[in-house]
């Protein structure tokens, strides 16, 4: 190549790929203290998810977010679209709880209770059961495609698919009554939306937990990106102690190991990591805090006769200042944690108080626009209103309706209405008032709707009375 050609090549811009080719991770399963906790959380969350669908309350599904009826049933509570404020409060409480947990113990939620982690763990258990341990899975993937490989892979995908479809069915069962959903499946009369969501949710469960796995945590989850904002030097995280572990090296029989650190460079902490990182490189956003590296490192330390804790839950300040466990716990109670805790308790107490004192009655008052005002035979002026009464309790109620705000105003006709349990009842009310009881035009009045036999269920709503 001539000098001119070399110069031309050098002047051309270099192409740099911004995409990293995925390297499949074969995480080795390790048993230990933190793995036992993870198993317990996986079992607990799935008992709640799959089992909660079958609980009954007052002859109905205890947990049902009925979209067709536009009512949410949560045990003895019935919520309507007008109760969206409680959903907002729940989201606020969840956010502050996550902030608090993250500030105290890092990505503890990610490592033990996040749905992505939980379902990835379930799919990996199936994979380990069907294909074998890590070495067997690597060997199987490298083997040529034959009948044995097709049988093993087919069995795994079949079990994955069944679990995914059952997961999708369970989710839809929280929005459509499960017994109705089962009957529709058995009679092949499943609606298009139920079918769509069962397969979509099941498909994404299989995609995320079976195939993408750590890529969801690394590239899709926003929590991994902003978690550092909630960390501080006293946040508990998975840490490697370089002062104790370095310089790392393999311990050979008869060799001088006096200049080596405690890390035997076995690489097991990388092998068991579900995101494939090396914790010895320091804190990384890919770390989900599952502590699998802690369990395996402790086992290695036991085998080589060294103290545990080379990889452990600790804090940045604890590593620098060599704090003991008691001092670490003392540093957890700090202004940031106190503020988060105070806000969380305050919001929870206020929300609980309002929920306990929530009146199981809602009323919308709609004026009859076809007849704004009319004159009755006795000379009084009548206005017609339609009351939409929402009885949010699960027992039928009879309500007494009264009106005030204008001298002589009264209900003309029936002033009581029966409302079915957890239902919406429309009731036309005629209000009559003397023509001299107010000014011409709009006059404010108030309706009082009270449950007969239960004076605590009383609601007062404002309306306007038109005098010609």
Automatic annotation (TrEMBL):
A Pfam family recorded for this sequence: Fer4_5
InterPro entries on file: 4Fe4S_Fe-S-bd, 4Fe4S_Fe_S_CS, Cyt_c_oxidase_cbb3_FixG, Electron_Trans/Redox, FixG_C, Helical_ferredxn, Ig-like_fold
Gene3D superfamilies for the chain: Alpha-helical ferredoxin, Immunoglobulins
Source superkingdom: Bacteria
Domain 4Fe-4S ferredoxin-type residues, every copy: 251-282
Membrane-crossing segments per the record: 37-55, 84-105, 157-175, 195-212, 337-356
Keywords noted in UniProt: 4Fe-4S, Electron transport, Iron, Iron-sulfur, Membrane, Metal-binding, Transmembrane, Transmembrane helix, Transport
SUPFAM superfamilies in alphabetical order: 4Fe-4S ferredoxins
UniProt KW Cell membrane keyword: no
Entry coiled-coil feature ranges: none
A GO term from the CC aspect: plasma membrane
One MF annotation (Gene Ontology) recorded for this entry: 4 iron, 4 sulfur cluster binding
Protein name: Cytochrome c oxidase accessory protein FixG
Organism in which the protein naturally occurs: Azonexus fungiphilus
Lineage: Bacteria, Pseudomonadati, Pseudomonadota, Betaproteobacteria, Rhodocyclales
